[in-house]
Amino acid sequence: MNALLRAGASRRALLAALAVAAAPVSVHASDAVAEAPEIDAVIIVGQGDRPITVQPRGLSVSLGEAEFRAVNAVNVEDLMKYAPNFFVRKRFAGDDNAVVALRGANTVQSARTLVLVDGFVVSNFLGNRWDFPPKWNVVGPAEVRQFDIVYGPYSARYGGNSMGGVISVTTRAPERNEVYGQSQVMTMPFKEYGFDEAFQGYSAEGGLSWKPENSPFSLRAGFRRFENTGQSMTYNLLSAATGTGTAVTGAYVDPRLATPVFGAASPVRVIQNQFRVRTGWEMDNGWRLEALGFAWLTDQDLTDTRTFLRDAGGAPVWQGRVVLGGKTWNATGLNQSLTERTEYLAGLRAGGAAMGWDVSANLSRYWIARQDGRTSRDMATGLVNGAGTQTLARQPGWWTGALVLEKAFGDHALALGVNGSLYETESETFNTTAWKNATGRVFSAATWGKTTTFGVFLEDEISLPGDYRLTAGLRYDSWKAYDGGIGKLIAGRRVDDAYPDRIDSAVSPKLSFQGPLTAGWDVQLSLGTATRFPTVGELFQGRIDDITQQIDPQSFDPNLRPETSIDASLILRRSFGDVRFTGSAFLQDVHDAIFSFQGLNPFGQVVSSFKNVDRVRQVGLEVIVEARDVAIEGLDVDANVSWMDARTLRNRSAPLAEGEMFPRIPEWRSNGSVRYRISDAARASLGWRYATRPNSDLFGLSRGDAYGFQSEYLTFDGRVTLAVGDYAELGIGIDNLLNDKAYVAHPLPQRSFVIDLKGRW
């Protein structure tokens, strides 16, 4: 390293890049404030005074305290909501199904984004759907020091799940002795169909850091309590029927929907408790050891189910055959449910020098120790604690680990390493006689399975004359899916059957070139491929045939192929004083994209399940503006706009999809914020989020601006913060100022108010 420092400015830039490269798994990188990289050495949007913690190949964004102070952050994922070409499917405050949509990875392709907290994987690759989001809530917003986002799979360090991108959450390290706290109250007046009420919640968060002077030991511990009631996630529509029924009133006829709305699922009452501890030990030889532990406890109560129907006497009608407007209808689908879940993350990491190499290693375990979901069969049984179901998870979770070695050899910065993961799941469903108490249990069904991935990578960053850099990488991944099965109750006895095991592998080359052009322009060109192997949930799904008492080969795809992408990214950057422009063009060509739709399985049968779409291609352009002290001192602007064209080019299972825009991906998207420092004690900000209306299905047949569809949205968010003494700050904010009503099939939040008070002592 000393030789590099003596070699001149280009070598210093290379050293900075090496420091960045070590950050994803190196425990000492997060403390290197005094050695922050030269920010012009790499193209990073929003680079602050700390190094980015993921490899900055392709479009890279780093968010810190300046951006966070302008956000009404109720949950941790809120801190990213103004990032370029970015969207989180957050339906209400406390939603634990908040899937990331980066560029053309849509909100039901959760397995295409790799999410890390302090270098440990919190991505739930047990499935690839809306209900397999990252485990955001292992950390609260007050604990976050930095958010880093890299778009696309351009570094060999990350496996195929980085096809959409990599998100790294860095929590605050125990750097000094302090006590901190934050409290919030929130309310959302909500009006739609039969709702006209305010849903409310609060959070309380606090903790301490302890770092004794001249001691190798450090500690940071915290706790957060969160309670909120979110609006109903689903509305229930009447379905056409014949015959006679109960005469009713109260349904809502919406011309945007096919049939009247008669009820809604319960508003979501959610309670979350989070516990965190982070300890460090600095050894005399320069090595640093760290241990992290997170616990997340969740209760969800959906027992306040609503019906809008009333009979002639004014009594509520929950279900059954009804007569409305001279027609006969069926009212079905309402029920009640309760869910309890306890989850843990435990991780160890170490970093230091050994035999001339910088070495970093980590090992983590995430597991759901308890998950108990109880649901009534319908509203009639729900109201009297009658028959229902109970679903128990048998400690699903994952192990992940990595070892990385780095060293500079003249003009070369070499990195090599291994990483691996084990994802495993098992759950059982029982029929019960009393759904709340889960009594009288009788086995109904079970599923289980495992996947493992082992990867090896080599990456060489070469410093070239003229401050250019060329980075070449190669990655090999070996994957196995095994121990998969399904069980079902047939003729009074449990029948189990196993899926076939699967083994596969992939080689993924990467290449990136970066350097100056002319007249102050910088350029980065990145190329890469990625292979994303199927998850447990995609591969091990189907049904047991009642006659053969084996897995029905028509109900799943035993030959489901991994999805592979060819990616290219071109970035141009130019600064004009305090204004910086970044332009990005990207291409992603995905073969065998895995998506759930109705089509032909390998046996020629029409089924609805996960299948391969032969070819999906997306191209896009992004323009990002970062401006500081615009027109007047203290006025900062971050603005971005993106255009995308994502289309199904070939789909032999369902040819009608060919040529259509891929679902849930808007053509235009824009995010941004304007921040004004009124004085040393007062700040104000205005943020916005916008996207055009995407297709709601694979065939372009389902488009609308109502419940059940993917709609366009345009929201403005305002926030004002005031210093309270020397150590505290009061924040007052409004999200969705204009009360835009938008949908991701489910209704998104309407106008919401937040007040928070936080302090550090």
Question: How would you describe this structure in keywords?
Answer:
761 residues; 5 helices; mainly beta; 5-stranded mixed sheet; 54% strand; single chain
Explain briefly what this protein structure is.
The protein is mainly beta. The strands form six sheets. The chain has a 24-stranded antiparallel beta sheet that branches. It has a five-stranded mixed beta sheet with strand order 1-6-7-4-5. Strands 12-19-18-13 form a four-stranded mixed beta sheet, with no helix packed on it.
- Average pLDDT works out at 91
Helical content band: under 10%
**Rg from alpha-carbon coordinates:** 27 Å
- N- to C-terminal separation? 38 Å
Number of helices: 5
Strand content range = over 45%
Low-confidence stretches: 1-40
What's the β-strand tally? 40
Instruction: Name the overall outline.
Output: globular
User: Which secondary-structure class do the elements indicate?
Assistant: mainly beta
The description of the largest β-sheet is: 24 strands, antiparallel
Describe the structure in your own words.
The protein has 761 residues and is mainly beta. It is built from five helices and 40 strands. It has a 24-stranded antiparallel β-sheet that branches. It has a five-stranded mixed β-sheet with strand order 1-6-7-4-5. A four-stranded mixed β-sheet has the order 12-19-18-13, with no helix packed on it. β20 and β21 form a beta hairpin. It is globular. The relative contact order is 0.12.
